[in-house]
Amino acid sequence: MVDVANVPGAAAPASAADSSSKRVALKRVLGPAHVWGLGVGIVLVGEFMGWNFAVGKGGAIAALTACWLAGILYTCVAMIDSEVTSTVAAAGGQYAQAKHIIGPLAAFNVGLYLVMAYTMLEVSNAIVTGDLIQAFAANMGLAGEVDKRAYMTLTIVFLAWLNYRGVLATLTLNYIITAIAFAAILALFVAVNPLTPGATVMHDQLLTGLPYGGLGILAAMHFGLWFYLGIEGTTQAAEEVRSPARSLPLGTLTGIMTLLIAATLTWYIGTGLMPWEYLGQAITPLYDAARLTGSLPLELFLFVGTLFATLASANGCINDASRAWFAMGRDRYMPVWFGAVHPRYHTPYRSILFFVPIAILFAVSTPLDQTITLSILSGLLGYTIMAIGVMMFRRKWPLGSIARGYVHPLHPLPAILLLGLCAVTYLAVFLGYGTQLLAMMAFYIFASAWFVLHRYKYCRRGDQFTMPWPKPKGY
């Protein structure tokens, strides 16, 4: 078990009064580059797969509109996260924020949203890894020798082992392979001759307006989020960052800028090389785009880039889901057994191992669009709580009452924009996946009832709040 007394700035509980009692804690070893690699690494896979389902929902123009609207939504998320997380620098990210600002029930639900969002994103990455390797083998004439389920399982097991062994090596690897994946997008963009339209990209022939009218833009918002989903994961490693006040805002805000550029380039490439009817259902659209250029080196580079993007994302998802589950176990929101830290590797190893069989089961049995939808829905619920939380945070602890590592501008406009765009996206998801939306809402309501009626009695309320803040305004 990790002791909150080991967290700088935290109020030590009574049990930590004996300084001779030394317990294993998470290590503060990460810098801004690791935070960038964690956030962008989780998300960049959205440029290699999944975003294109928005094209199928409403056409290429609708997908671009959804891409930019989702970019506004996630810019608000990054701004809010940068302020609150640089102040509440604890494992669990948004879970820890909700615990300190709103209350236990909200924190429990946010923790579940995080775990579900990252686990389903990890599953989606494993599915794409299997499909990519199978498609590449088929192109090389080896289709009969590849079972994609084996590669799905191998991906999850290998990355869980890597996370088990240590966070510094894990996120250093994420930084490297994410940079290579981003370079693959840039290389493909240069290869399609963007300065000479019509030579390679054929937007004048392929763009078809809005085949389903304005309703297509609304429907496209569902998968438009996939360009950016997961950037909020930078907060999950807050307790392992050397300088939270500097590293978390810098890594998060540069991450969202990177993704806005990558998303726009990705749309330009895909819609200029493939008709929207095909693009809207492709599993690996950028790899397909590289094949259409006729360049074997570029095809190989995009195969590597797509593979690295899926591995970086799955790697970061394991990191984030395990930190959220670990934090909930440490606070006894879940069995305390999950709140253990490995004595040698200083990782939440039980929480890492717990999700391995769950992820494998979903990967081999659930379609890709379903796992993406489950991840998006859980993320949306978390963003809704985040917008409410930051308004409560500013009201309870006004500027100047506590030290903040970063203060996001224009408050409360980002929170209001975030709530409005979340409402639009809920409607978009309901149009295409209403059953899944209602089923997930029912699941979270049932889980909330279980927490209130059963689990909360095991929590030590006095030990949950670790920030040395003054009483909130109006208390």
Automatic annotation (TrEMBL):
It is found in: Membrane. It is a multi-pass membrane protein. GO terms for cellular component: membrane. Gene3D superfamilies: Amino acid/polyamine transporter I (1.20.1740.10). The keyword Transmembrane helix applies. It comes from the Bacteria. Pfam families: AA_permease (PF00324). One of its GO terms (biological process) is transmembrane transport. The lineage of its organism: Bacteria, Pseudomonadati, Pseudomonadota, Alphaproteobacteria, Hyphomicrobiales. Keywords: Membrane, Transmembrane, Transmembrane helix. It comes from Hansschlegelia zhihuaiae. InterPro entries: AA-permease/SLC12A_dom, APC_superfamily. This is Amino acid permease. The keyword Transmembrane applies. The chain crosses the membrane at residues 33-54, 60-80, 101-121, 150-168, 175-192, 212-229, 250-269, 300-326, 347-366, 372-393, 413-431, 437-453. Residues 41-440 form the Amino acid permease/ SLC12A domain.
